[in-house]
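Marked as duplicate of an earlier ticket. Keeping the data here for the record.
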Amino acid sequence: MGYPRRVSRLPWFALAASSILPFGVYTLRSPHPEIAAATAPSPGGRAIIIGGGPNTDHNQVAIESNVKYVYRLIPEKIRRSTLFADGEPDKATVLYVEDVDRLPFDVKAVALTLHGNDRDYFDNGKLRAPSIPGGIDGASSRQNLLRLIDGISSETDVPNSLLLYFTGHGGPLNSNLENNHYDLWGRGGVLSVKELADQIAHAPVNVPVTVVMAQCYSGSFGNLIFENGDPSNGFVGRDICGFFATTKERVAAGCTPELNEADYKDFTSYFFAALSGRDRLGRRVPSADYNRDGKISLDEAFCYTLIHDESIDVPVCTSDVFLRHEVKYHIDDLVKTSYSDIKRWASRCQRVALDALAAKLSLQGEERYATAFKMITPVADQAARRKRGELANHFKEIRSERRAALFGRWPDLKRPGDPSFSVAYAQSLQYIHDSSKSGDGDGWKELISAFEALKLADRDSETSENRAAAALRFVRLCTSITLAHELMQTGSSAQKERFAHLQLLEHRTLFESGGKAPSEPQEDPPTAL
């Protein structure tokens, strides 16, 4: 998580909680019996799932998989709507590759020669129609989302909570990282932070909103806690919290066209596995019930994700954004905070995440915060970097030779999109196929071998990047806990009450109408490892 929770040590918290929570507390109805048995049903929730796009070249099957995974985890009594891609259920818009590592020899050789990689999804991928449970309620468009949000007010039973889940692509909008966008379907279709804030304002003000977003640069949507999504404004006058795959400056994992869901390592996979107790394949996962109250809250799922996510993701929650906006700090001073103090200020689930990440990073002693800070930027082994450079140069040399051979026979291969390209492409495939069969394909075999060696070196680099991301997750968690402690010491009563309420919102289960102060049992927390 991004903040500490210290009910038993902070008398102001209990007073704030009693003044801002006049409503009842409900819990998530899980589709899994072992979880459902431990929770009470929640009436009247609403969920809107938005995914796909912005076009067929970037509507990878992993995005569709996210939509299906989240849809089937939401209890059936919760009304669900899905906006996906172009909204056409029978149109082939989902991009997939059956098994990129098993591409035929000739296809892989041509892909490497023309494009420099074997993951040429646009040439070798396939398109199929979406398979969305419950059907599609329209295209992923600004108009359709507003239509669904507007319609909540006119529903017979106004929901007691609203989930907005987004999966797809995103990026900065005009280099303003505070107002990044989510890609909607179609050319130029985007939804910025401020635009989403305007749309959410159409929902009944008494309906708490939870936003979960899995796209790149999604962290800036934490600004939804401010009026009009603008951090220069005051706080919005409604209950809203959110959880996002990564910071406003970083790309996120996922969005692969490969079919094997067992290989998916991304924010959606971990966050919703924690909430439901099962992964995408239905397998049981370690419990995220860190305070052992018999249910999984959103902040517990967030901490579970910090621990278990094996990717470049650096998840963000709205309380992280709140603290960095409200508390002034210098990171060089903050990292000097002792680990024992940070753990003492942390909530139960934060303490579990701290220890788990520290163990993963082999951190020890009181200076773990400062040590992890130095690990944020991966330092490549010089010998490994030099070796990787040699492999890259070797691959480029062979590829240059192969390109000359292909272009010499088929100049039309230089003109993708031209009608003559397809004919030349098919002829080049046949040529390489025949060469390999006749024993004259050594040059193509050497090309593929050189690329495989380079790819292996890149996998080592990916491992280093994932470790740096885990270090950044640890640092950000320490930062949020320390900033929260500082807020408790020096903040105004209004800041403390607002933060307390945001904590309660983040401590709800998925379809609760309000928050509940977390319990702090005396027994040791589960390992979660």
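See parent ticket for discussion. The chain is about 45% helix and 10% strand.
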